[in-house]
Amino acid sequence: MESSSSSLKCSALGKLVLSSGLLHSSWSKISEIHKSPYSNQDSGLGIKIYREEKFTLVVFVAPPIFTSSSDSTLLPGKENENPFPFLCSENNPSFSLHTPAFKLFTSAYKSLTYLKSELLQTLESEKPVIITGASLGGSVASLYTLWLLDTIDPKLKRPLCITFGSPLIGDVSLQQILENSVRNSCFLHVVAAQTRIRMDFFKPFGTFLICFDSRCVCIEDPVAVTELLNGVHDSEQVDYGQVLRRLDQSMLSMADSRLIPEAVIKGMEERAEMKTLRFDMFKKLNDMKISMAYIEWYKKKCRDVKIGYYDRFKTQLAFPSKEFDIKIKNHKIELNRYWKSVVEEVEKKPQSDISILKRRFLFSGNNYRRMIEPLDIAEYYLEGRKEYRTSGRSRQYVMLEKWFGMEPIEKERRKNRDLSDLLTFDSCFWAEVEESLIVINQLNTTVGVRDDAREVLLTRKLVEFEEYVWEMIRKREVSPEIFLEKSSFMKWWKEYKKIKGFNSPPSYFTEFMNTGKYKSYGQSQ
Amino acid sequence: MAFEALTGVNGDLVTISWMASKGANQTEHYLKEEVGGTVFFAFRASFSSEDLFATENTSPFGEIKMKRNQFPCMRSIGNDVDTTVNEAFLKSLEVLIGPRTSFHASVQSAVDRKQQVVFTGHSFGGATAILATVWYLETYFIRDAYAAPEPRCVTFGAPLVGDYIFKHALGRENWSRFFVNFVTRFDIVPRIMLARKTTIEQTLSYVLGKLDSTRAPIHESDQVITEFYTRVMRDTYTVASKAVCQLIGNGEAFLETLSSFYELSPYRPVGTFVFSTQKRLVVVNNSDAILQMLFYTCQSNDEQELSVIPFLSIRDHHGYEELVQSIGIKLLNHLDLHNPLLDGENSIGSALDDLGMSTRARQCIHAALEAEKQRCQAHKNGYYDSFKDSNEENDFKANVKRVELAGIFDEVLGLVKKGQLPDGFEGSRGWINLATQYRRLIEPLDISNYHGQLKNEDTGPYMLHGRPSRYKYAQRGYEHDILKPTGMIAKDVFWSKVNGLNLGLQQDIQEILKNSGSECGSCFWAEVEELKGKPYEEVQVRFKTLEGLLEGWIKDGEVDEKEIFLEGSTFRKWWNTLPDSHKIHAPLYPRERMMDETRAT
What we know:
The structure holds two protein chains of two kinds. By secondary structure, chain A is α/β, with parallel strands linked by helices. Chain A contains 19 helices and eleven strands. In chain A, helix 16 packs antiparallel against helix 17 (452-474). Chain A is elongated. In chain A, 41% of the residues are buried. In chain B, a hairpin with a 4-residue loop joins strand 4 (75-76) and strand 5. Chain B is elongated, with a radius of gyration of 28 Å. In chain B, strands 1-2-7-8-9-10-11-12 form an eight-stranded mixed β-sheet, sandwiched between helices. Classes of the chains: A alpha/beta, B alpha/beta.
């Protein structure tokens, strides 16, 4: 008795696919077209739509493949040269496609565009769509499905592409792109065992139904698929009608035989194991919330001694005194490591999948950015470096900010709210403060001949910063912590006040500061 | 002896049930039989297709949702979904308990005399027996007022009646043990409901005619029967294969894509099944394993056997007399977690040989039992205890603990939603109490954190977007538990309380109270946070509702009265800003502590 659950998985999924009747529905339409007298007459692409009761079937028919058909076409990530720009990910900016299939696809681009809008309507009316074809027809069906998938609202039912003995269409890059995507689940490739599919350049993706004599198995693992499909027969010569009939006849009888070699199963199991060991961002999210809770508490404690957590962290970095401060540094490292990996995982996904990311991820990520980035900034300037915003920011902050900005959220900001726990909206705020302090330093250390032009330039920078700060205060988007006695911002203000002197005209900001109004900023009224 | 220990019924009870079931076919609706203080209710089997698929019903399997106010326990708490059952079967129950029969009165009188009741039936009469038992459990057994004794339900070749939630809810309430179903090896009827209505519609009436023993005899080579059998088994095969894929967690995204292209029967086995073969009776309790057996016991070894099985599938429907007589004579096997040896050497193995189970079939059964084992393990791993142990700290780490607890709770909730804990877990009083305690203690902290970090300004009101599903879940479990003995549902109770406050027309009030924290006592603070700072006139109704419900919450322990009336509490501060005209009429006004405060200001 085979004990492995992998082999049970493959066989149960195979049985499900077989008994669902989908293969029969698809194949009967394909063979109907192939038998009709009009087929094979022209060299173009034929498309036929069948509206069945439960689903809509779209059949692609293509001329037979010529022998020299292993050419590939490289598609760059640029929009105008690639009909599939949305598939490119940060890690895989380009990929190659099977040339004959791609040529047929582009030759019929116009009618395919029309078909797309028609099918989208069908899907929106809750009717599922099957896209199918045999041999090269199946390859074009796959390409078309990839193209269609981009425009489908993730809430709708996904279409299913069923191919019979079709050549593979994409290279290893496309395989990698799809491996991380839910789109991979939309492809079912039916192939007879003992046949051979060219895999030297092209690589499999999707689920394969491999048909043995009276049994079939379903496999998703691309390596196992490669190992199993290295037979001698040409897969395009197989009569799939006959293959399906044989499978059907033995459905209710017992003949269970071992179909997959033990070594292949073992490999599959090992790879499955590796996959579960991979970074699980959902599981770790909660641990990260715990680290955040520590830092929240740190922030509160700092406030009690009249120093913002930004400045406290900066001074403690220079002179670590308490164990607690070191712990905070460790939590920060943990959090950075985690979010860096999350962002990397997400970037592997095709661009259009990112929107599916769960909301709570986005909010946690945003919270993380606003809370932790100031600490990174503290480290950065302590090391004497400059221009954080343009050259010092870690990628995860940039991406998290970008994704958060893309999310449509209706904000309801209320006046009179106590802002004491607010995290400053612009997580680079402290970098701006540091830059401005540097400018002040430059102004104060002018030696020798007065350089008016330089002074004007530097002063203008200071005024720009003032305007930036005032805008945030006005919108109540900055934490009241910046006004704490020992904060770097207050240090800046004292210097700035001196530079401006009493001659320059008062601004809203200077009045706000001079009259002490800032002391009641962010208190509930 | 062993038989009774495994099934909860003894041979005599089964024999009387069978006799009564046979007798019921001569009646219009049901037969009542009283033997030794136990009252047997047997139901007539109907063989007309309208009694299998309700005529007006357009669902692919003739299914319909059970009404929550009539069957408040028949739902999932974790997913908040009601049970689905076959509409035709439900209709026969409705006729039965309606004024046209004496059934309701007969059961009532048995309940009044504290007699044990047994519901029984052969074939489609068995379906009625199952639903009648559920009705009895909901109407009498669960109600404190009756203290009704435990019922029994004994069916012979009955079709499946309800979906996964039906099975889950009975398991949660620990009621599955009341159901025993006898199935002869090839009997088609227990499998019929696994087929799509459209695939069997045409031949159904013909086959039902053949199943009715009072009609003409059947022939081995009847092509219509073969066709019918093949169609039913094909669909059964799809259901069984899909179940295995889910049990071993296989290709989830692909399964999801695939699932929109076929329709799968929602019906699942409930209670204990006793399968019979020539030499043995095999007892199985695990619903997943039973489902696999319904398919695999019909597989054939060879072409010749394959050709006679359709005939046997009709003949076996009338094999129950022989089965009942063989109890105590045939060998008895129990297929469960403790006997998972599926090889041919021990007695379980031979039992499976007798049932014609192939190697692959055994793997499927094994997967089903293994899944149950994992469910129990998940339970034993002590989610409960790790939760309980850490529920009591309250120093600086409260915040850290809060997040830790949320993590554990979410993990449990995930398991519950995916059905990876034993059915009984959610119903246990210990868990419900713990979840309630957790909700009351921690939710206010979450609310304060939510508003403290001004998340309501980023994300919207707490009740709309912020309230974690773990609290909604804990609230549902709590309400289910306290309302069970009354037969009422939470929504109705809430609205009757609100209506009692006489604040206006119910539909206006409903609109105003959408997403209001008054829905649940532990959301008290969320409502206060939402209302405070807004002009009194604007939030008058919402505030009066909150006030009106507060007394009840304090009494139930939902809200800690000491805390909300503290000098510096958000609530008290806000109360002080309210106009005097409101305060004087407010239900809180007479309270001593409030009096002091209002006089002082």
